[in-house]
Specification:
alpha/beta; Immunoglobulin-like; 4 domains; five-stranded parallel β-sheet; five-stranded mixed β-sheet; 17 helices; 34% helix; elongated; disordered N terminus
Length: 669
């Protein structure tokens, strides 16, 4: 069913272009009386067993005026359901094919037409004239032919098909119309750009005019909303956005219409959300930009980022059943009808003439009873008036009703099937080149998280916006994209390296406990709060934990980290700066240290021994002096006593031999 719809959509769009293009007679003398061009257009959305048919016919005369000519309408009694059969009928390649019997409806007079002029008339056939009641229940296309016969018997054939719709239920169609702006490398659109775009002849004004009074859902680039919030001093752009939101439901596209699939392919583990890139505007939990590129890895990243659903193109779902809801890696899928989107794209490109819009749209649908989501190509703003005509064709169709319910195809937990997706059909930027920006942005984001004030949000928002803008597939100039990518990589690299450990020299520890000096450099314009973590390579040294410290903008701060020696030897210190979550900031460095903790004990012991020796020597000398002094004192005292005794008795005899006088020697008789 899905394959048939896609083929019929493509073939019919091409074929209808053929029916809308004048059919020209062969260039020979006998064909001079034939019209220069005959165009037949079918303006109804479809016919059935209970309706007639109206065909708009225009005839342009060549060098010879047309007079007395007739047009005969014939239908084939068959419903075509194969794209190749339809194309064969429209191109006249019907040899050997069973087409059913001719059903000639009626002859119609062609108004007399002067040379070079065009006449228009309507061929009408009633239900009774068509006699197609026995085709009840079939769905497809009934082939017809209009044969123009001139007064002299020359004939010209124009073939076509009309949609046959019998017994079908009616479903809702939600048309999502994206509003984007030209891709620029700047983080925000300027006020001058916004003013020009919302002016009466600007692209935004033309788009809103084309959508006025229609039933659609607007998907607007989040970058437009952020720019209006920041750069609209006159209020003109804000008024335009408010008027748009008053008339239509508005959902956000990713910032800069960026591709999260491209970011994940480039190594991103998480993806920016609308909330992270647009301040003051609540984001959606549905992502609207991944229809042709979504894969399981991206679905997981989107789920982690807080998204609950995503759009995926029906041409990607290999196990598609319009009655089933789908999910991928925990992400609910909204299936967009790629066949209808393709038909719209062909109409916008000019491959289908104006009167055939309803036919082309109806041809792209095989089951009108199913509610469907249709995403309009982002390039529609170049043909805004054509899109309006397409929306009017939807509004007048009997096989569907327009809806502005954006949740029309979201899945429910009660009946959800895992989707099987074919390879991506969408366009993405070069993931290998983008990976360098993703890596540097990761490092810069960690640094931004350490900023000690509200500026952290500003820096992180800027990083997210840059990532999304450069992941967008809408860049028209790849060389410019490559240049802007390199500029963004250098900017992120500068931010990532702005907070670093200062130069660290090798040191020698000669005490059992000390404080290790560590310098931290902050080149940002904002203060940062960080923690230094030091891990020794072995157990010879114990490093104490330190408290977080705030480093002012454009400054270098030195902290002292307590360390304690356990044993002598060499130690390598792994040093890094981390944020409050333990994420490494900047580049980790190593520092060699030689631990000689016993030198302090040895030196102290030697000093103590020297003091003890000096003290002992002094004490010894003091004792000697004391003893010598005491001896002299005793001798003097004895002499004085003898003298006193002698003086008292008048005797001059010497003292007894057991107490010899000092300096005297003892004599025996």
């Amino acid at each position: 069913m899905r394959t048939w719809r896609a083929l019929v959509s493509a073939a019919l769009a091409l074929a209808l272009c053929g029916t809308g293009v004048p059919a020209t007679a062969e260039e020979d003398a006998s064909a001079e009386s034939l019209p220069q061009a005959v165009t037949v257009s079918f303006t109804q959305e479809s016919i059935d067993a209970f309706s007639g048919v109206d065909l708009d016919v225009s005839v342009t005369a060549g060098a010879t005026a047309i007079s007395g000519a007739t047009a005969t309408l014939s239908l084939r009694h068959i419903v075509l359901t194969d794209a190749q059969d339809i194309e064969a009928w429209l191109t006249g390649e019907t040899t050997g094919m069973q087409w059913g019997g001719d059903l000639q409806v009626d002859d119609y007079e062609i108004p007399d037409t002067d040379a070079g002029q065009t006449s228009a008339f309507v061929i009408s056939a009633t239900r009774a004239q068509l006699s197609l009641g026995d085709l009840y229940g079939a769905t497809g296309f009934v082939p017809f032919v209009v044969i123009v016969t001139t007064a002299d018997g020359q004939q010209q054939r124009v073939t076509g098909v009309v949609p046959w719709n019998q017994g079908e239920s009616v479903g809702d169609t939600t048309v999502v119309v994206p509003i984007t702006a030209p891709t620029t490398s700047t983080e925000l659109y300027t006020e001058d750009e916004l003013t020009d775009w919302v002016a009466s002849d600007g692209i935004f004004a033309r788009m809103s005019e084309a959508l006025a009074g229609t039933t659609v859902v607007i998907a607007i680039d989040a970058k437009i909303v952020a720019s209006i919030t920041a750069n609209d001093s006159t209020g003109a752009a804000a008024a335009w956005l408010a008027a748009l939101q008053d008339e239509h439901p508005v959902v956000p596209l990713s910032y800069g219409n960026g591709s999260t699939t491209a970011l994940v392919s480039a190594g991103a583990e998480t993806v920016p959300t609308v909330d992270s890139s647009v301040t003051g505007w609540a984001g959606s939990t549905t992502i609207w930009t991944e229809g042709d590129t979504l894969d399981a890895d991206t679905a997981s990243a989107l789920t982690s980022a807080g998204y609950t659903s995503a759009v995926v193109s029906s041409q990607r779902v290999t196990n598609l059943d319009w009655q089933t809801s789908y999910s991928l890696a925990g992400l609910d899928l909204i299936i967009s009808d790629s066949s209808v989107s393709t038909a719209i794209e062909q109409v916008l490109s000019g491959a289908v003439s104006d009167p055939q819009y309803p036919v082309a749209l109806r041809a792209s649908v095989t089951d009108p009873g199913v509610d469907r989501l249709v995403v309009v190509p982002t390039t529609w703003n170049r043909q805004a008036s054509t899109l309006r005509a397409i929306l009017q064709a939807f509004a007048s169709a009997s096989w569907t009703e327009l809806s502005d319910d954006v949740s029309i195809s979201t899945s429910s937990e009660a009946n959800t099937t895992a989707a099987t997706l074919s390879d991506s059909t969408g366009t993405m930027v070069d993931a290998d080149q983008l990976s360098a920006l993703v890596a540097q942005s990761k490092a810069a984001d960690v640094v931004a998280g350490a900023i000690a004030d509200s500026s952290a949000t500003t820096v992180r928002t800027s990083l997210d916006r840059t990532l999304m803008t450069l992941s967008s597939p809408d860049w028209p100039d790849q060389s410019r994209w490559a240049t802007e990518l390199q500029t963004a990589i250098q900017s992120a690299q500068t931010t990532a390296g702005a907070v670093q450990l200062g130069e660290q020299a090798s040191v020698r520890l000669i005490s059992s406990e000390s404080r290790l000096p560590v310098a931290i450099v902050n080149n940002l314009s904002y203060p940062v709060t960080v923690t230094v973590v030091i891990k020794p390579s072995n157990g010879r040294l114990v490093v104490e934990e330190v408290e977080p410290i705030t480093i002012e903008a454009h400054s270098t701060t030195q902290i002292l980290v307590p360390v304690r020696a356990v044993a002598n030897g060499d130690v390598t210190l792994d040093m890094q700066i981390v944020d409050e979550s333990g994420n490494t900031i900047g580049t980790a460095v190593t520092r060699d240290m030689s631990v000689s903790a016993e030198w302090e004990s040895v030196t102290a012991g030697i000093f103590a021994l020297a003091i003890a020796l000096l003290f002992g020597f002094g004490l010894f000398k003091g004792i000697l002096r004391h003893l010598r002094g005491r001896g002299r004192t005793d001798s003097s005292a004895t002499s004085e006593k003898v003298s006193a005794d002698a003086h008292q008795t008048g005797s001059t005899e010497p003292a007894p031999a057991d107490t010899p006088a000092p300096g005297t020697e003892e004599t025996h008789r």
